[in-house]
Amino acid sequence: MNEPKLTQEQMIMFAGALKNAKNIKCECGGEIFNQGARIKVLSRLLIGSDEDKPISIPTAYCIKCLKELKPEEEKESEDKKILSFDFKNKK
C-alpha cells in the first residue's frame, strides 16, 4: 500500500511539532518503550466462521519495569477518560 507523500512544508511542520511534543512517562519514570503484541481470540460465533480466529493487537511496554502502556479507552472503567493512559503489569 502506498503511503501519502509529505510536502517539504508538511515535513518541516511535522518536525517542529515532534520537537515540541512531550514524552509519555511510565509510573517508574521510564521513557523508552518496546513494541509487543497482545493476542486475542475472536469467537467463531461472533465472526460467522467455522473456527475461532486469533488476532494480533500491537502494544507497547516500558523496558524499565515491563508494564504495558494501554490506552484508557481500551479498558473498562467508570471514569471513561479518553486519550489518557494506564499502565498494566505485563508479567
Care to describe what's here?
It is a single chain. The protein has one domain (22-89). The protein is 19% helix and 33% strand. The protein has two helices and four strands; from the N terminus they run αβαβββ. The protein has a four-stranded antiparallel sheet with strand order 1-2-3-4. The two termini are 36 Å apart.
How many strands appear in the DSSP assignment?
A: 4
How much of the sequence lies in strands comes to 25-35%
| Biggest sheet features | 4 strands, antiparallel
The end-to-end span amounts to 36 Å
Helix content: 10-25%
Radius of gyration: 18 Å
Structural class: alpha+beta
Pick out its properties:
91 residues, alpha+beta, 4-stranded antiparallel β-sheet
SSE blueprint:
Blueprint (H helix, E strand, L loop, with lengths): L7 H13 L12 E10 L1 H4 L5 E10 L4 E5 L13 E5 L2
Antiparallel strand pairs: 1-2, 2-3, 3-4
Short characterization:
This protein is an alpha+beta fold. The protein has helices at residues 8-20, 44-47; strands at residues 33-42, 53-62, 67-71, 85-89.
